[in-house]
Design a protein that fits this description.
The chain is of the alpha+beta class. It has helices at residues 5-10, 58-74, and strands at residues 18-21, 25-29, 37-43, 82-85, 101-105. Strand 2 (25-29) and strand 3 form a beta hairpin. Bound molecules: guanosine-5'-monophosphate and zinc ion. Guanosine-5'-monophosphate (5GP) is lined by residues 5, 16, 28, 30-32, 40, 87, 93-96.
Length: 114
């Protein structure tokens, strides 16, 4: 999508600290980190929200999760623990309408989330 900020990051049209990339996904550090580790995992293809992802994308969604766990390991979180978050629509806190997983770690997190 031409104007989507995460599509632009995936196409390298705007800079980001990319920590992992393959044919299907890109992982990059969040510009406004909420924890010592805060990385976003996005698909290279554009889906505005998780509501827009069909059953045919099951493998892509699984891949995003596995990439998040791989980045967690690379960032030393494997044994300490970490949180994976996906916000869907505004009431959940979604602000960028290109699906992404947040990988958060390096501090303790409260539950339930705010
Ligand atoms: P959401 O609120 O949609 O769940 O998460 C969007 C995340 O994207 C936020 O944590 C925000 O800080 C991050 N973000 C927004 N714009 C940019 C950007 O241009 N670069 C990077 N690296 N992160 C961004
Ligand atoms: Zn996009």
């Amino acid at each position: 999508m031409a104007e989507c900020i995460f599509c632009k990051i995936a196409r390298k049209e705007i800079p980001a600290k990319i920590v992992y990339e393959d044919r299907q996904v890109v992982a990059f550090d969040d510009i406004n980190a909420q924890a010592p580790v805060h990385t976003l995992v996005i698909p290279k293809s554009h889906f505005a929200t998780f509501n827009d992802v069909g059953a045919e994308e099951e493998a892509l969604l699984g891949h995003m999760m596995l990439v998040a766990t791989r980045v967690a390991r690379d960032k030393g979180l494997h044994d300490k623990g970490y949180r994976l978050v996906a916000n869907c629509l505004e009431s959940a806190g979604q602000s960028v309408f290109h699906i992404h997983l947040h990988l958060l770690g390096g501090r303790r997190f409260a539950w339930p989330p705010g």
